[in-house]
């Protein structure tokens, strides 16, 4: 009797980290599998460690190689960490994409905003609908989250059913959209669930995430109490929060002015898809200055301190149309993503120095997470009763705590894995059976580079220790035709003793070259390498850092 196909799972991003989500499911045997990809997201560059890198994306080389076996890419929702890499990476995959209406519309708007708009077809599936993709039958189960139309995916196969939760929470009173579909999740549990692949973001936090409705009440009260102008900043994609701010403004008889292109784009898509039905029309930035201070509310991008976003420009007092004055109020209806603390702090400090009142989630309930805390995780496990649980979407501590909670809840088998681990889900005993290529790609301007790229590695070194350029002209006899030229970038001008650093470098170049055997002096490559080493060593002795050194030898 033929052995049944194996069902496997592998994260290629989003495990051991927050962001850059890409999961794949395989059905078949070790010689040939059909692959289904879930989400294709980004995380954001860190100027300290990755200067000049805008976005970090998962390495899709494995899926490129498996191209003919990749049956589709399914989106759980339209947050950047789940769909932000598609425009750059889809040309390498060229597989069908499946999403619900809002996610598809926001993706289309994102494509149109590109310099060279991409034509990437997306098949729209209704919320709660099912679709056959190769040997997988995928069901979109509504869950509450901080963007419309978030879905857990029930992946039905001949081996069993897997629930891939995506990002979710239990919110009985969401401001818009359906609450998490407890009835359907319980039905999956009753039918027998092979595996739960679940969001771990808040697995270290006890209790339950508060509701969006509570945030809406707080914002309404704060806007009503405010004396001067009010600006609210939130994630542009949080349409429920936009709706809550609009309601608060209407109650306080204020006009809403949209400030920032990302916010304009989401508002347009939300209106087209019905998520802002009944909400008053918003006004453009050009009329902001025409309203009395107590009759206007600016809804701004820039909650993460992005330097060119609206709020940073307002904080620097260099926005062409929108200004705030002493006594005005800014509400940060967002959380600071780890790594953005300095940038957000700089914006807040800039506003405080202008005498502006700042409200954050530290002192008022103006933001709630879209992810489940521990009691919600317990509910999900109780509803679905999986045979196996694999924590994903979190750093090592989050994954560990989610795994520990699952064991305490009596889940028979719990596996923690890392990006690249291929996990057999069934039939038979589950476990890690192989390693797949997994890594990072970097968006550098409009170019996508891999993590070993010279540009990425060298720029990191340059940002730490500068660069020295040496140009030498040598004769056929292996002698200097003229004095070497030295140029330094990012290097201290003088040593501790006050000696010019370029004199140190010049002396190192000349003495090293003249000390070489004549045969090496005639060899441009050998001479350049000897000089390079000597310069780095001489500067290190005087400074304690080894700069990049580029030596150009010209034969005359």
TrEMBL record:
Q: Which residues form a coiled coil?
A: none
Domain Metallo-beta-lactamase residues, every copy: 21-219
**SUPFAM superfamilies per record:** Metallo-hydrolase/oxidoreductase (SSF56281)
CDD domains linked to this entry: RNaseJ_MBL-fold
Q: Does the keyword Manganese apply?
A: no
Keywords attached to this Swiss-Prot or TrEMBL record, sorted alphabetically, are:
Cytoplasm, Exonuclease, Hydrolase, Metal-binding, Nuclease, RNA-binding, Zinc
Extract the InterPro entries matched here.
Metallo-B-lactamas (IPR001279), RibonucZ/Hydroxyglut_hydro (IPR036866), RMMBL (IPR011108), RNase_J (IPR004613), RNase_J_2 (IPR042173), RNase_J_b_CASP (IPR055132), RNase_J_C (IPR041636)
Pfam families recorded: Lactamase_B, RMMBL, RNase_J_b_CASP, RNase_J_C
What PANTHER family does the annotation carry? Answer: RIBONUCLEASE J
Protein name in the entry: Ribonuclease J
| Protein source organism | Bradyrhizobium aeschynomenes
